[in-house]
Write a sequence for this structure.
């Protein structure tokens, strides 16, 4: 499924060639225009050199920092309106940071988000003394991977990477379509940097960091999808940040060491990176995990203990592997520096660097990041109050002191700032109009784009193509007429996609419109008791308490049922597959009671498909690869009248289970068999139970 994509290389970008030019709903956070003509009299490199030459050391360091602004002064509400937090606005004006990263707490709706981004850029410009310094607009970043990691609550969520990987020969094109949609919506809001996609490769089913954020366990599929996804983003002048180098698991904040050897990485995780770098990758994020089998050991903070640095601060992984061996000349971003593994070695509690979680420790981490070859220090601080503002002042001063003392070479600082500014110049960030004019027009354009019907139609199509049938012993399709069916969700929020799917199916006549539907989650009952078709909806897991919940009414409904459709959600790691896990207990009890009632049991694996190995006794196993966004009604509208970020995958799977749609998906990862070890714990064996590419549909 090779996909040939020609992309502008980063080297050509810094030489001043046309870069990342494409269509978007709004190509700036203010009025959708840029002022390229202002820079036409000088080359890109001359322009950047001039800016760097005029910067003080502290200004250069600030350009390397990307803080968060989640909340302010301990308030539960997120920062959504800069004018409401003047102290934060003043604090941001003290330094021209390289950018800010937005989270879900910063996002309410289309108009609000665009105004926030615009205000951030305008506020940043107000802090600049034009007589001595050039305004350097922000990289405004977000983790908009799609699927389980999507910051835009009012936009198009997307199906998630693993669902894209499940669409077989169409995966690269579907990745491209997803990247295009996300790029259009991010650009419309003024968000110009997407910390996506994950180009990690699943190498160990027991890895607690694994998730549906990963396209596949096949390096070629990951490569093709990564290139397609980034190509879509590029068209809207949104920068792609590939993560998490050197590629293992999904780069989650789980601090366990990655046991891969160099040979294994060369045969897996490094393949996509070599490809995207060859195709002009502009930015790469480095993992916070340790890699003991490929990295050099170090002496930790106590001066005695031997250990390993996280990849982000490893000279061998960043400087040698990424920079020298793979030839990456673009911007290297750290993983979030607020994470524990930068301060304590995984599994030991031993401090990695002197100072621990003090200012000294953070400055020491920054020193190691810069020395290793990193350019952007991501999230060393969440600017959530006056104390953190002072902390950040001291942080910048501490790094500057490291430079003046010779501990950090100033040339490294200059090189990093040049790379950051070269990229900002190449993608038009340096030329953004930060006057604050034209916001209303930009809002109107954004409302036509973000969460549009066209985008959701594409999302729905990809979700339907991803639905994968692993097994069917005569249980499918579930009849929508003349039968008694139990649909069992995991949590209360599952009532939303289940209810939406049933409403759609009944409206089309695929499920008896006169069926008796009892929803034990919502308490809503429709249809007569004497109806030919009975459908009972319930859940088995209390998310808040982490406990199994089971009512007599549910057992009674299963006892009368001919079919039981049970959603199963497994996030990651072996712990989630043990008998002690309440979610496993729920699916297991539903299967047991269905057997006792002689009912057909259909398991809908709605996240990681590895739970298929635990419930082989199911009559049918269907996968759809996404359990996030359950609580959003697909019929609901955002502020613009467009659909909000929904879960399209579960309704697509339910349509297929009731026989309305096919199940054309192919399993994007291999799933090994499981057995109990001597302690009674479930572990994976070497036997491949379902091979990659399995498709019983």
């Amino acid at each position: 499924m090779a996909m040939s994509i020609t992309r502008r290389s980063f080297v050509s970008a810094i030489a001043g060639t046309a870069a990342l030019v494409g269509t978007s709903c709004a190509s700036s956070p203010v009025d959708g225009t840029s002022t390229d003509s202002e820079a036409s009299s000088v080359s890109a490199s001359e322009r950047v050199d001039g800016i760097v030459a005029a910067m003080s050391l502290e200004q250069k360091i600030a350009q390397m920092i990307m803080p968060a602004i989640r909340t302010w002064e301990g308030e539960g509400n997120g920062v959504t309106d800069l004018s409401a937090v003047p102290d934060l606005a003043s604090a941001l004006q003290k330094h021209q940071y390289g950018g800010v990263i937005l989270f879900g707490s910063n996002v309410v709706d289309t108009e609000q988000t665009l105004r926030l981004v615009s205000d951030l850029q305008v506020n940043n410009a107000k802090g600049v003394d034009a007589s001595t310094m050039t305004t350097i607009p922000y990289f405004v970043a977000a983790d908009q991977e799609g699927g389980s990691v999507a910051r835009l609550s009012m936009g198009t969520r997307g199906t998630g990477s693993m669902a894209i990987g499940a669409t077989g020969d169409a995966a690269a094109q579907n990745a491209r379509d997803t990247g295009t949609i996300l790029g259009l919506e991010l650009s419309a809001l003024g968000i110009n940097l997407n910390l996506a996609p994950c180009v990690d490769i699943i190498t160990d089913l027991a890895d607690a960091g694994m998730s549906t954020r990963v396209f596949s366990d096949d390096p070629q599929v990951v490569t093709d999808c990564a290139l397609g996804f980034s190509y879509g983003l590029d068209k809207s002048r949104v920068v792609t940040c590939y993560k998490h180098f050197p590629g293992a698991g999904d780069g989650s904040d789980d601090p366990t060491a990655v046991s891969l050897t160099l040979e294994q990485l060369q045969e897996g995780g490094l393949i996509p990176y070599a490809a995207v770098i060859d195709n002009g990758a502009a930015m790469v994020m480095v993992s916070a995990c340790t890699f003991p089998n490929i990295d050099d050991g170090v002496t930790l903070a106590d001066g005695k203990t031997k250990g390993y640095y996280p990849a982000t601060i490893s000279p061998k992984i960043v400087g040698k592997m990424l920079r020298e061996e793979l030839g990456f000349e673009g911007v290297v971003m750290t993983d979030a520096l607020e994470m524990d593994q930068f301060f304590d070695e995984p599994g030991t509690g031993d401090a990695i660097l002197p100072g621990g979680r003090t200012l000294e420790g953070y400055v020491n981490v920054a020193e190691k990041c810069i020395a290793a070859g990193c350019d952007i220090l991501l999230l060393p601080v969440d600017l959530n109050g006056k104390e953190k503002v002072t902390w950040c002042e001291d942080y910048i001063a501490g790094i500057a002191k490291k430079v003046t003392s010779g501990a950090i070479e100033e040339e490294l600082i200059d090189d990093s700032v040049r790379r950051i500014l070269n990229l900002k110049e190449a993608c038009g960030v340096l030329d953004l109009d930060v006057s604050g004019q034209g916001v209303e027009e930009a809002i109107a354009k954004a409302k036509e784009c973000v969460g549009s019907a066209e985008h959701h139609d594409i999302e729905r199509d990809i979700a339907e193509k991803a639905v994968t049938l692993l097994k069917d012993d005569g249980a499918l399709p579930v009849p929508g007429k003349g039968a008694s069916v139990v649909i069992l969700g995991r949590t209360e929020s599952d009532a939303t996609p289940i209810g939406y799917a049933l409403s759609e199916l009944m409206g089309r006549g695929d499920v008896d419109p006169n069926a008796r539907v009892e929803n034990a989650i919502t308490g809503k009952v429709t249809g007569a008791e004497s109806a030919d078709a009975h459908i009972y909806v319930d859940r088995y897991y209390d998310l808040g308490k982490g406990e199994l919940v089971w009512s007599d009414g549910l057992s009674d409904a299963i006892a009368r049922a001919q079919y039981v459709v049970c959603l199963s959600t497994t996030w990651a790691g072996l712990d989630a597959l043990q008998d002690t896990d309440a979610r496993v207990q729920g699916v297991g009890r539903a299967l047991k009671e269905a057997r006792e009632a002689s009912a057909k049991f259909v398991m809908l694996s709605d996240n990681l498909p590895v739970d298929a190995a635990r419930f082989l006794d199911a009559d049918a196993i269907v996968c759809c690869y996404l359990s996030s966004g359950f609580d959003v009604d697909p019929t609901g509208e955002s502020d613009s009248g467009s659909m909000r970020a929904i879960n399209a995958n579960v309704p697509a799977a339910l349509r297929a289970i009731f026989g309305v749609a096919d199940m054309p998906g192919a399993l994007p990862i291999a799933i090994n068999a499981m057995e109990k070890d001597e302690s009674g714990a479930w572990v994976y064996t070497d036997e491949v139970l379902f091979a990659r590419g399995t498709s019983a549909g």
User: Anything to note?
Assistant: Confidence is low (pLDDT under 50) at residues 1-41, 250-255. DSSP finds 20 helices and 22 strands in the chain.
